[in-house]
Amino acid sequence: MNGTVRGTAAPRAGDDRREANAATVLRAVLDHGPVARSGVSRLTGLSPAAVSRQTVDLLRLELLVERPELAVAAPGVRGRPQLPLDIDDRRLAVAGLHVGLPYSTFALLDLRGRVLVRQELPNGGRRGRAVLKALLERVPRLLAAAATGPAAGRRVLGLGAVTGGAVDAERGMTVRHEPLGWREVPLRELLERATGLPVRVDNHARALAAAEVLFGDPAARRSMVQLFVGHVVDASISVAGTVHQGPPSVTGDGGHLPVPGSSARCHCGRRGCLSVAASDDTLFAAAVEQGVIARPDRQLLLAAVRAGDPRADALVRERAVVVGGALALLADVVNPDLLVLTETFSVADPAYLAAVREEFALRSHLHRDASLLVAQRFGADALAVAACAPVLGELYARPLPGF
Ligand SMILES: [Zn+2]
Fold this sequence. Notes:
Layout lengths: L15 H17 L4 H8 L3 H13 L3 E3 L18 E3 L4 E8 L3 E7 L5 E8 L6 H18 L8 E9 L2 E3 L4 E5 L4 E4 L1 H9 L3 E5 H12 L7 E7 L3 E7 L2 E2 L30 H4 L2 H10 L8 H9 L3 H25 L3 E6 H5 L1 H14 L9 E3 L6 H16 L6
Helix pairs in contact: 1-2, 1-3, 2-3, 4-5, 6-13, 10-12
Bound molecules: zinc ion.
Pfam family, one: ROK
Protein name: Putative NagC family transcriptional regulator
Family: Belongs to the ROK (NagC/XylR) family.
C-alpha cells in the first residue's frame, strides 16, 4: 500500500473552477449514484461538456467507476445508452486514528464511509507521550496488516487523526488536550513520518460533524449542531456544509453549560457543569457505587441495561434528561436544521433517544417537538468514521490532486 500525496499547496487560480466542478460532480454521484452523466448535469446545473470533462479525471483517479450493467436505453433515444456513474468503492481506502482516553480506534473506510477495518486499541491507563509513542509504533503495523485483510489490494489515500481538545487543523497539531495530558503535539508530522501517508488532523467533535455532513441526513448540510457525550462532552456547529473551526482552533465548549440541580464539581472549579453532570465518568461511577456494575466500563453498563436492570435504566434515563436539557439550550441559541446526538445509550436504544427527546421538547422554547433531534447514524462505528472524516472531507472537497 502506498500513499498518494494530495498537495496542500494552493491550486493555481485557473484551476479553481475545474477543482470545484470536479467536487460538484463527485458529490452528486455520492448522493444520487448510480447516475448517468446527463443526470449529473441536471442535478448540478453544470453543462454536459463540463460533466464529461470532470468525469474523465474522476474515472482516471479511481474515484468514480462506470456501471455498464446498469445501463438502460432511454425510450425514443437513439444511440448507445449512457453508462451510469457510481462512486468507486472497491479500489481505494482511507485510514483513520481516533485518539481517545480509555482507548484509541484505528479504522479503514471505503469512499462511501463504510467501515472495512475497525480496531480498538486500549491505552492501558497511559497518558501523555506514552500514549503517542505506543500509537506511533502500532499504526504502521496495523496499516501493513490491513494489506492482507479486508482492505487487501486497496490503495490508502491518507490517514486522518482526530483527538479531543484544541486542535489546529492547519498546523496539524493537538494544541491542548487536558485529560490526555497533551500540549503542542505535532500529530501530523509524527504520523506522516511513521506511516509515509499524508495525514490530516482535526478535533473529534468537528470530525463527527464533518462525517454527518458527508454521509448523513441532507439537513446536516444546511445547518447542524452535533453534541458528543462521552468521557468528554463537546459540541460542534456546521453551516452550509462547512464545519465551524473557531479561533484559536477551539470549536466552542459546550462542556460548561449549567445543568440545573447538579452540584458535581467540574475541573474548571465551578459546580453543575454539563461536562461533569453528563460525562461517562460520572455515569459509570454512579453505576459502580450502586453495585450495578463491578468496574466503570461501557460494555458492562450496556449489558446491564440490555438485561433490564432497573437501576441501570434509571441512571441512563437520568443522564438522558440532563442531555435533553442541554440540547434544548443549544437548539434555542443556534436554531439549526438538524441536531445530532452522539451518546452511547441513545445511539444503541431508541427508548433512550425518546427520553432525551421528551426532555428536549419540554425545555426548548423554539421547538414544540423534537423532530430535528436525531441520534448519530454510524452507531458503534462513529469514532471510526470520524477518524477518517478529515481525509474524506478533503477528498470530496478537492478531489483533483497534483496541481
Ligand atoms: Zn466547568
